[in-house]
Amino acid sequence: MDDSIPSGLLKEWKIGDNKLKKFTSVEDVNDIDALVKKALAYKVNPLKDATLGINKRIGLLFLNPSLRTRLSTQIAARNLGMEAIVFNVDKEGWQLEFEDGVVMSGNTSEHIKDAGPVLGSYFDILCIRTFPQLVNREDDYSELFINAFVRYCGRPVISLESATLHPLQSLTDVTTITEILQAKPLGRKPKIVLTWAPHIKPLPQCVANSFSQWMNAWKGTGEFVIAHPENYQLAEQFTKGATITTNQDEALKDADFVYVKNWSTYEDYGKIYENDPAWMLSLDKLKTTNDARVMHCLPVRRNVELSDDVLDSSHSIVTQEAANRVWAAQAVISELLK
Amino acid sequence: MDDSIPSGLLKEWKIGDNKLKKFTSVEDVNDIDALVKKALAYKVNPLKDATLGINKRIGLLFLNPSLRTRLSTQIAARNLGMEAIVFNVDKEGWQLEFEDGVVMSGNTSEHIKDAGPVLGSYFDILCIRTFPQLVNREDDYSELFINAFVRYCGRPVISLESATLHPLQSLTDVTTITEILQAKPLGRKPKIVLTWAPHIKPLPQCVANSFSQWMNAWKGTGEFVIAHPENYQLAEQFTKGATITTNQDEALKDADFVYVKNWSTYEDYGKIYENDPAWMLSLDKLKTTNDARVMHCLPVRRNVELSDDVLDSSHSIVTQEAANRVWAAQAVISELLK
Amino acid sequence: MDDSIPSGLLKEWKIGDNKLKKFTSVEDVNDIDALVKKALAYKVNPLKDATLGINKRIGLLFLNPSLRTRLSTQIAARNLGMEAIVFNVDKEGWQLEFEDGVVMSGNTSEHIKDAGPVLGSYFDILCIRTFPQLVNREDDYSELFINAFVRYCGRPVISLESATLHPLQSLTDVTTITEILQAKPLGRKPKIVLTWAPHIKPLPQCVANSFSQWMNAWKGTGEFVIAHPENYQLAEQFTKGATITTNQDEALKDADFVYVKNWSTYEDYGKIYENDPAWMLSLDKLKTTNDARVMHCLPVRRNVELSDDVLDSSHSIVTQEAANRVWAAQAVISELLK
C-alpha cells in the first residue's frame, strides 16, 4: 500500500499494525483468576458494560459446526454493545488456503493472506473456528490456520477452537469450578480428574489439551490427574505437570471434579485404537469420588461417553458449564476491547 | 445442579421452572379474536411496543428450510426491540436426538435433554421448526420433537411448524380473513373451504391440520368445508366439526374463502395415492363461489396446485396473507413477553 | 388485492407502486463522481448518517456464495442505522423459479412472482446475488433473474452481482482509483488496463463486463484498454469505446492501473479455450507500466491469476479495494434510502 495515501482516508489494516492481543491459548492470559472474576461478575450483571463495544463489530468465522460457541460468543458481544456478524466460511463463502507460496490450482479459492487483511478492515475483533484435519499431526500441531489468521488479519483474534486448543471452553471450565467452590468451599484445593471416554468417531484432542493446559497453569488446581487407556496419551507440551494414569478407578478416588471427554490418539495420530465401553462414566463409578461434580463440554453422546444416570443426576454440571460460556466469552471480548 | 449455589449467580434454567407459556397449537390460545386484534393493531403501528422486548433475546432454531416463517418472526421480534438470533441446527450445528434412553452411537450427536437447557440459558424465548419424517405416523403425531423441546428448554416456545401443526400460519390466516371481512363485511359468517391440491412430492399435513383446527375453534367461522380426493382424509382430532367431502365443485359453491393446500395421505401414511390435475384450483372453478378470496401458505407450485390465472387475479390474497405473518408473529411474541 | 381495503391497514406492496430506484448497472447512476465522493466521505466518517436508515430493513438474498459483498453490504447498512437480514435462498429456503407461465413440476419450489411481493412486504430495500448458469448465453444476458426480482418485489433493489454485471464492485473500483489519484495526482487522466488472467474454472464475465461498462461511462478514465487471448472477447454492449488487444505486453505499457480478472468465453459461451499461464500477471510484466497499481476483485487464485510477488508488493491495492466495498455500498444504500 502506498504510504503517501493520507492515513485519514485509510481504514484498512497495514502490515506492522499487528501489535495486538489475542486469545488462542492460556499463554495469552496474564491472570486467570482475574479473568474468571470478570466472567462471574458478568453473570451477576450481564449488561454492566453494555456500551463498551458500541459502534464496534465482531466477526465470527466458522470453518466447522458450532452451537454453544457460536451462540454464546454472539450473545457475549451483544451484551457489550457490539454488532456481531456470523459468517460460515465453508458454506457461505469458499475454502481458504493457508499454505504459503502454493500454486492455487486446487480446491481452495482464496488465500488467508488476501482474506485476512480484508476481514481485518471490516471488523474490530475477529473470531475463528478451525478444526484439525486429524490426518497429519505436524500440520495440525503447527496451528497453521489460526496462526496465519492472527498474522494476516491484523486484529485481535479469539479462537473459537483451533486445531489443538479450545481456550474459551477451558476458561469457562475454570470459571465453573471456581463458581462451584465459591458457593460451597472445600477448605482445600480440589482434586480434578480428566478422564477419557469412548466415542464412535475420532475426535480432536483440543478440549483435553486445553483443559490440561489450563489446569496446569491455574493456581486454583490441587491435584490434576489425567486417566486414559493405553496409547491415548496427549501431547506432553500440554499435560506436563499432571499425574497420568491408565487406571480410571484410581484416578476417580476422592475426585472433586471429573471432566469427561473423548479424544483420538496423538502418537499414531487421529485413530481410534480401542473403544472399551468400560471407560464410559457411570453413576456407580462416582461412588469413590468426593461427591464429584461431572463436567463435559457438550455435545455429549449419552450412554456412550456418559451414562444417562450421571447426566440426569445432581452430579452433572454440564448445563451450568455450557451456560457459563457466555460470561467467559464476555470477559475475553471485554479485555480485547480495551 | 447444586441447590446451595446462590440463585443470583445462576442464570441457567432449572427443572421445575417450566411453568411457562407456549404457542404450539390453537389449544395454547385463550382468545383467538383478541390475538387477531392485536396482530392487526401491529399492522397499523408496527413499532408501538418497540421497547417491550428490550434486552431480551429470541432464538430461532431451524431443522428445516424456511423463508416467510424465518423472516417474519425475525422482523416481528425486532419490532418489539428483541435481539433475534437464527440458528440452522442441521447445517450450522449437528443432528439432535429426541428419543429417551437411547445409546447414542448413531447419527445424532446431541440429545435435546442436554441442548434444551443450554439453549434455555441463552434465550428468553425459543422458536423451533421441526418437520415430520413422514415415515411413521405414530412418531410424527406424538410430536416427540417439539414436546421434548418444550419440556427441556424451560422457556416459552413458539412452534415455527412442527410435525403436525403450523399455528403461526393459522393465526395469520384467521387474521387475514378477519382483515378482509372488516374491510368489506358480509353481514354473515363466511363459508370457508379448505381444498386439497395436487403436488409432486409427499408433503406434511401440518398446514391443513392446523387450519382445520383453528377454523373449528374460531367463532368467526360460518360453514367450514374440507374437500379432498378419496383416501386423503386428515386426522379426525383436527377436522372434527368440519363438513368433509370428496366433491370439490360442491364444496366451492358459495364459498367466501378458498384455502388451497396439498397434503400427503394420513391413513396409509405419507403417500401420494393419485395426483389428479383436475384438483388444481383454476379461475373457472371459482365461478360458483361468492367471488371467493383464494389463500395459500406459500410456497406454491404454480400450475400444479394453483393456476397462474388464479394467482395473478384479484381473487388471490396470498401476498397479503404472507405479509401478515409478521403481525401474527408479533402478537404471539408480545404475549409471551408479558 | 381488494382496493376497498383501507390502505392504512395494508403494508404490502401493490403492483403499480413500482416507480422505485435500483442499482443494477452503471445506467442506474446519474453522476458517478458524486457517488464516489459520497463513498469517500463515508470512509472518513462512517457514522455520519447513522440514523438515516433507522427503523428500516434491508434484506440480503444470496443464491450464491459471497464473502466481501455479503459482509460489506451488511456493515454499510448497519452504519446507516438499518437492520440487515441475510437470507441464503438456496441453503435456508428453496429454489426459485423465474420463468413465466411454467408448470412448476420440477426442482423449483416457488415463483419469484410470489416470493418477490412477499419479500417486498418484509423489507425496505432488497439486495440479491444471482450468478449466471454459463449454459445458455441468451438466458444469462437477458438478466431474467434480477429483472424479475426488480419487477416483482416492488422495492429498491441492489445487485450483489447478477448474471452479467457486478456494479457494487465497479463503483468500488472507481472509488479506489479516485482515492489513489487524489492522494497522488498524475496531472492527467490515468491509463487503465483490464487484463484477462488464467483460472482453473469457467467464471462469469460479470466483473469484467461491469468494469468495462463503468470505465467507458466514467469521465475520469483516460485510456481504457482491454487485453485478452484470442476468442475471449467480451460483449460489445459493455466494451464499446475501449481499445481491445490480444497483446498483453502492449496493453501494460505506461499503464497506471492494471485490473486483473479471469472470465470464460462469451462467443462460444461459458468455455475455457486455453489457459495460457503466460497471461498470469507477474512482477516482471509491471516493469513497463507507470509503477502501476494492481487491482483484483478477490477471491484471487495466487500464482494462477496473479503471482505472489505482485500481490505481496506495493503495487497491489487489492486490500484497499476490498475494504472500500463498505463505503461504495454505503453510498448506494444511502441514495436509495432518500
From TrEMBL, chains A, B, C:
Keywords: Amino-acid biosynthesis, Arginine biosynthesis, Transferase. Homotrimer. It catalyses: N(2)-succinyl-L-ornithine + carbamoyl phosphate = N(2)-succinyl-L-citrulline + phosphate + H(+). GO terms for molecular function: amino acid binding; ornithine carbamoyltransferase activity. The lineage of its organism: Bacteria, Pseudomonadati, Bacteroidota, Chitinophagia, Chitinophagales. It comes from Arachidicoccus soli. Residues 21-179 form the Aspartate/ornithine carbamoyltransferase carbamoyl-P binding domain. The keyword Lipid biosynthesis does not apply. Pathway: Amino-acid biosynthesis; L-arginine biosynthesis. SUPFAM superfamilies: Aspartate/ornithine carbamoyltransferase. The keyword Amino-acid biosynthesis applies. It is an enzyme of class 2 (transferase). Belongs to the aspartate/ornithine carbamoyltransferase superfamily. SOTCase family. Catalyzes the transfer of the carbamoyl group from carbamoyl phosphate to the delta-amino group of N(2)-succinyl-L-ornithine to produce N(2)-succinyl-L-citrulline. Is essential for arginine biosynthesis. Transmembrane segments: none annotated. This is N-succinylornithine carbamoyltransferase. Its EC number is 2.1.3.11. N(2)-succinyl-L-ornithine binds at residues 161, 199, 261, 301.
